[in-house]
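Cont'd.
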Amino acid sequence: MLTAFARAFKTPDLRKKLLFTLGIMVLFRLGAHIPVPGVDFEAVMFCVDETKSSTGLFALVNLFSGGALLQLTIFALGIMPYITASIILQLLTVVIPRLEALKKEGQAGQAKITQYTRYLTIALGVLQATGLVATARNGSLFQSCRRANEIVPDGSLFRITMMVITMTAGTAVIMWLGELVTDRGIGNGMSILMFVSIAAGFPGALWAIKQQGEIAGGWGEFIAVCAIGLAMVGLVVFVEQAQRRIPVQYAKRMIGRRSYGGTSTYIPLKVNQAGVIPVIFASSLLYIPALLVQFTEDKTSGWALWIQEHLVAGDDPIYISSYFLLIVFFAFFYVAITFDAEEVADNMKKYGGFIPGIRAGRPTAEYLAYVLNRITWPGSLYLGLIALVPTVALVLFNADQNFPFGGTSILIIVGVGLETVKQIESQLQQRNYEGFLR
Amino acid sequence: MTEALGSTATPERGRPEDQTSPSRRGKRKKKGPLGRMGTFYRQIIAELRKVVWPKRNDLVTYTTVVIVFVVVIIAFVSVLDLGFAKLVEWVFG
């Protein structure tokens, strides 16, 4: 099976794509290490070391940017602004008729929406960069560090503007890298970059668990966490692979002297049709209140305190329940966006296909919607639970709740991994090789 | 052919739910919200029974492949990070 990886590299076409993706990853990580101009590198390093196990405002975002945020590098904002922008546009497509018309226009309209997403990303990048630079300057980025005020030695307007522009440009470059991967590499660029960012935090976090643990010099906890992680990978793969297959029969027809069709296939409806997108959406939406707090001058005003208390820490009941509800909502929302029952039914009708026992056209669309609705309920509950169970468990055992083995990161890592491996697999099969997944 | 069929026998408008679940026809008005939730729950279970769950063999293969892939990428990224951290320290430190 593992020879399939080697075989993937032997296929010239696929090798090019894989190497391209790996190259993009290298660039992405390089950018995550180069400090922004105007920052005292030594002071930042000192503070990052001192507040290693941070549980503050930025812990989750720091995880999503692969540790680049706290180090104030040129890629500090990571892929988050792009993701947030695409969520906002997808939400708006439902609300604003003009955007909906654009979407229905097909390729050209889609290109326009993509362009809007890019503009919005830049706007969000400027906002977020300003917030980040402001917190870095007044020393609240590292609250417990005694050199926190030395991070930005020269607070003149020129310097600050330069830092903001650099970070925004970094965001634009990341966006471009992501689109390049989607175009010429393997997998979906946005998810791949997200994957890399989270992967970058794993070894350090695992090591920290070993260091903090007590059973057998920490190895007890280390092995336990690894075992739980593996079990969760298995579970996620299990549900990800589960399908409700709706049989479709194609009518036989004669064209000239040859007969076409007459085959029976099925429409695969996954239990979790939405994939990991709802989790990513929910966690980036929940980050917005924290972002708002960054901008307020007065961090002790009522609402700011309320947000810091209830919407920032991962163990607060309000945080947990709103996270869960958002995941369920986005699961349905995303399925509704990506799977248009009417369109599928229409296409089936066009090519002479039908579901046995159900009339073509509207009844078929209704039947598809019926099944999809009922299957998405357990799917979305599963997503919410998986994303939360580790958090709750960790709180119960009083561990660090911003631990990267949380459900969110496991879901993203496994989901993206599975998707990418399948794509490599299908490309291998195109060339008549048996892939990894015999 | 199918179009012709569809045009002669279009379903009644206004009662789309009944089309999809004929068993509930007529009973709907008697049921309160709790009863309807019960039906919905039973329908969910019915659909879940029809789901094709992955076989044990497939599950093991997929899990192994995903784990190998993820570990390889994590190793790759960690090596990169280590190298870049050293490099950046050397340049700026």
